[in-house]
Each structure stands twice: as C-alpha cells, then as structure tokens.
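Example record

The entry below shows one chain as it appears in the dataset: sequence first, then structure tokens.
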Amino acid sequence: MDNFTFQNTTKIIFGKGSENNVGQEVSKYSKKILLHYGGGTIKKTGLYDRVVTSLKDAGVDFIELGGVKPNPRLSLVQEGIKICRENSIGFILAIGGGSVIDSSKAISIGSLYSGDVWDFYLGKSEITAALPIGTILTIPAAGSESSTGSVITNEDGFYKRAVNSELIYPKFSILNPELAFTLPKYQVACGSADIMAHLMERYFTNSEHVELMDRLIEATLKTVINNVTQVLDKPDNYDAWAEIMWSGTVAHNNLLNTGRVGDWGSHDIEHELSGIYDVAHGAGLAVIFPAWMKYVYKHDINRFAQFAVRVFNVENSFWSPEKTAIEGIKRLENFFKSLGLPTNLKELGIIDDRLDEMASKATNSDLSTVGNFIKLGKSDVYSILKLAK
C-alpha cells in the first residue's frame, strides 16, 4: 500500500426531501449567489420551485444562469464568470449532474482569477482561490458532487480537459434519490457506466497489497450492477436509486484512491471522443474501457482474472488466468450491451477518419503519455481506438 493523505471536506445531506433545506445551507456562506443549472427539466419536475422557495425563505438573493449542456462548454463558464464578477456573487449553487457541477467549479475558480480560466485546464496556472459552491444532485454519474475534479470542453478546437484541486470540493451536496426518478433510461445507463469507469480506473493499479480498497471497489461495482437493472425496470425504486446514488459519490470522492495509483488512461482517451463528437461521456467509456482492457490485460493477467471472478462471478476452477481475464472483459462488454449502451465506435456514430487526430490530441502530439497502469503513447492510443471500432 502506498503512502497517502485523505481528507474530503464535502458535507453530504442524503435522503428524501433534503433539497427543501438548501436555503439554510447556502445562507451560511452568502446571501447573494449564482443559481446554475442545465435545461428546463428542474422546472418541469417542481425542483426549481422548491429550491427558490427555500432560498427566499432563508433571505438568499440569486441570479440565474441556465443552459449547461453535457460536456459543459467554456463559453458558458466565461459568461458565469462575468456574472459573478459584476454582481459580487459569493456562492454558486449547482442543480443538476456532473456537467452542471463541473461548470460551476470552473466558474468558481475563474471568478477569482485575473487571467483566462482555461489556463488552469492547460496546466499553465495553479488554482489558489475559488468561490464556494454547493450542489443538488439530479444525475448519479460523474461523482463531481464530492470530488476535486472539473472537466470542461473548449469549443475552440473541441478540447476536453480536466483540472483537480481540493479548493473545489463542494461545501455541501444534497443527494435525494427521488430526484433521479424521471431520468431517461439511456441517461441511467450512461451514468452507471460512468460510475463503473471511475471504479475500474482505480482498480487497475500497479500498487501492491491493496486488498481493502480492492474489495471495496469490487463491492461498489457489484452494487451498481445489481441495482441499475432494477431502476431501469422500475424508475421510482427509491431503495435501488439510493444504492446507485451513494455508489456514484463514493466511487469518485477519493476514498477509493487511498494507498494506490489509479490509471485514468481510458478517461483521457474518451475525452477526445466526447470533445469532438459530443457523445455522452458514459457511452464513450462503455466503448473505450473494454478496448483498453483488451490492449493492456497481459500487463497483469492475475489482476484482470481477479476482477473477472470477484465482480462478474467467472468460474476459474478449470480455467487459465488468461482465459478468466478475457471472459471478464467479455462479461463487462455484454453487461454494457444489456443496458442498451454502445460497445464500439460505429454504434456511437464515429467513423475512423479522425482516430489519428484523437490519438495525437490525447498525447499532445506524442510528447506525453496517458494512463499509469501502462503509460500509453500516441501509437498505443491509436491501437486502442482501432480495437474500439
């Protein structure tokens, strides 16, 4: 087990009706806030009205900025930064899924920075200050409600890049599983794939003697697998949604990082898909992760065999570790298919005319590598994309 320091400062408020107390939580930080959200769904479901009532009851004034899209755009972030600066905003409340929360985090760091917020995503500047944010989660998937990460897409070149800082941990996150009842089935499937990818990125590690985290990751994966089919069959199954929502948070709140170094190569590769083609992040991961596995599994066949046995119940009594590993990858792919997710680029509507471009962008024209389990250069990324065709 590697040395580590762990601290997560996000207060989690979990359960039925928990959004009704958001005003009390926000008022601890500011009486003038930016209310940030996506489309009109929160108004159709009544969530918007409940939040506004709670904010007004607590004496909190707000300025709205809606319109966040999946793969959140830098242009809207810049609009939010302008609003915050011109109106002396002291807090940002995100209502939505990972895209809204990531956009809010970007606004929070850009509002207190004299330069271009994109500098942070290019690694040109270090985050030293951020407006506090809070979240009301409506889509279990990205885990941004309790993470140090933010991912933004720059329309100029369609670059999708990430930044991490403990300064952008949300101050609080409200998790009410009831808010996920109206999600479309495809969005449920994509969210589950995203959660599973966060877990698998941590699972495939070169760190040794990490049994506790291995078993926690395996248990969380099995929990998602066991419950996603239940909510697809019965969208108002509160108990199943509660399991998925909490799994999504635990998968990405950095607890399961402890004592190990994860990979993240699949995420870096997928960012090029969703950056250029604007596909759903979870759908892209359902395509890229199995392809990555097929390319790297021989690096540690025993770990892949362990994954197959413990997560997908592959019987290994008479099998070789390699056959067990391959069967595990196959069962993961079949599981994604059973959810109605794509498992190849063609099903995503992506042809192979830009594979070289994506491989080049992922590796900065082969000047850098992605991943840690195996460090992947441009030719490796290109090979994985070819396997994903």
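Notes for this example: DSSP finds 15 helices and eight strands in the chain. The mean pLDDT is 97.
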